[in-house]
Amino acid sequence: MVRSQVDDLIIMMTIGKLAKKVGVGVETIRYYHRQNLLEIPSTTSGFRLYSEEHARRLQFIKRAQTAGFTLQEISRLLQLDATRDHAKAQELAIARLHALDEQIESLQSARSALQKLAHDCEHNRGQPCPIIAAFVPGE
Predict the structure, then answer these.
(1) What HEC string does the chain produce?
(2) Cα–Cα distance between 123 and 10 in angstroms, integer?
(3) CA 111/CA 93 separation, integer angstroms
């Protein structure tokens, strides 16, 4: 084969090989099918065979999740990609940034509270543990 023929060759893989290639579980792929995030390929010789395009889409989903997007938001991003609506994609990204900022603030607050409890625990020997007491209902 010449180089151009090799480039045009479509590599097909089973769901197991796709999962391994992308680093997700087979059940994750099936879940994405049910959520309409990943199309179900047609069956060939009794097997569903996946292409590199399926792998790219799964990698997109994983990267978007790492950036903090929910599956619902990822679905919207995929729709926006098809229409090339950059403005709406930017709006979605900005909204996600605001949500992440709120999560960071909440986590920092929880960290500070836990840090204070750990400090109090260290300095209150012989008394009830402030960490345990903080999580007991009604106290």
Answers:
(1) CCHHHHHHCCCCECHHHHHHHHCCCHHHHHHHHHCCCCCCCCEECCEECECHHHHHHHHHHHHHHHCCCCHHHHHHHHHHHHHCCHHHHHHHHHHHHHHHHHHHHHHHHHHHHHHHHHHHHHHCCCCCCHHHHHHCCCC
(2) 66
(3) 26
Give CA torsion, residues 86, 88, 93, 99, to 10 deg: 170
pLDDT on residue 139? 58
Write the pLDDT tens digit of every residue in 63-88.
999 999 999 999 999 988 888 888 99
Residue 127 has pLDDT above 90, yes or no: no
For the entire predicted model, the pTM comes to 0.72
Higher pLDDT, 11 or 32: 32
